[in-house]
Design goal:
Blueprint (H helix, E strand, L loop, with lengths): L6 E3 L6 H24 L5 H28 L2 E4 L3 E6 L2 E6 L5 E4 L7 E2 L2 E2 L6 E3 L2 E4 L8 E4 L4 E4 L4 H11 L11 E4 L11 H24 L6 E6 L4 E7 L5 H20 L4 H26 L1
Parallel strand pairs: 9-11
Antiparallel strand pairs: 1-2, 2-3, 3-4, 4-12, 5-10, 6-7, 8-9, 10-11, 13-14
Helix pairs in contact: 1-2, 2-4, 4-5, 4-6, 5-6
């Protein structure tokens, strides 16, 4: 392999991918077990928390399984144009002209989440710092640019440094710009729209409140519900309490449909997505208020 060609480097062997794969599998099994239990239980507050647990376990399983795949496929590549780091559905490109030094890492930064220190292999990124190192400090390198410090753990650190030193004097074949490229679903611009994220989170939260409120009150409701009508609150009709379950079910269906349609329309007209999701928020609030009026 000549210095002018690209050279690929594998990361230091680590157990992080297998740990994430195992945790993801356990979470999937837990979600299936909870779903089977919930399927045979009556409507109640406990049933709501079981269903919430199923959804949470599935979400966490997806996170861990994605991270497992990303760790298994992590790789570094040096070319005359720069450094490429492939991490899951993300590719980081660092122009070779931006790299100031490549040296042994005296220490590795610590990744934290909600004050909890994460394992070394739980790679993270924040302003001015990119942690793509799977090894310990003595086994890792730090690539410094004017804007960032990038920590890596190639299997052969000396070969990585030598490959960089050989390519610097050769010059670039094409000028790169610093970039973070995302592929597939992760490239969808909706993920990076803060307003859309707030609307989406509000819909999900209000739907959970609606379902939780109805499920919590349901066991204490009488078999027949008198529906008030008019200012005098005279009884207009009688409904069975099972019919009230259409309120949370309908709310969940409306939330799902609006979220899906908003995501589909986002590329054509983000404003239409905002409007659609705002209407969904109003509907969820209206359903909750309506339920409170019926059971008060």
């Amino acid at each position: 392999m000549t210095p002018s060609s690209g050279q690929q480097f594998k990361p230091k062997p680590h157990r992080g991918g297998w740990l994430c794969l195992g945790i993801g599998g356990i979470l999937l099994a837990s979600a299936a077990l909870l779903a089977d239990i919930a399927r045979r239980q009556p409507v109640s507050a406990a049933q709501f928390w079981r269903l919430f647990g199923v959804g949470l376990a599935l979400l966490l399983a997806a996170i861990f399984l994605y991270r497992a795949v990303a760790l298994f496929r992590l790789q570094y590549r040096l070319t005359r144009n720069g450094l490429t780091i492939r991490w899951g559905a993300t590719t980081v490109r660092v122009p070779i002209g931006d790299i100031r030094t490549v040296t042994a890492a005296p220490a590795l930064p610590v990744c934290t989440f909600l004050g909890i220190t994460l394992p070394r292999w739980w790679l993270c990124r924040r302003d001015g710092l990119w942690l793509f190192a799977t090894g310990a400090a003595g086994e890792s390198l730090v690539v410094k640019t004017d804007a960032t410090e990038i920590y890596l753990s190639p299997e052969n650190s000396a070969a990585f440094i030598a490959a960089w030193e050989k390519r610097v004097p050769l010059g670039e074949t094409r000028r790169w710009q610093p970039a973070v490229e995302r592929r597939g679903l992760w490239a969808f611009p909706l993920w990076f729209d803060r307003t859309a994220r707030y609307f989406g989170m509000a819909i999900i939260l209000l739907t959970l409140i609606l379902v939780g409120a109805v499920f919590s009150r349901y066991p204490a409701l009488p078999p027949a519900i008198h529906l008030p009508a008019g200012a005098a609150a005279q009884t207009a009709a009688i409904a069975s309490r099972e019919q009230l379950l259409w309120i949370p079910y309908g709310g969940a269906i409306i939330a799902a449909i609006n979220l899906a349609l908003g995501a589909i329309w986002y590329r054509k007209d983000p404003l239409a997505t905002y409007l659609l999701w705002f209407v969904a928020i109003v509907v969820e609030i209206g359903l909750w208020v309506g339920f409170r009026m019926v059971v008060q």
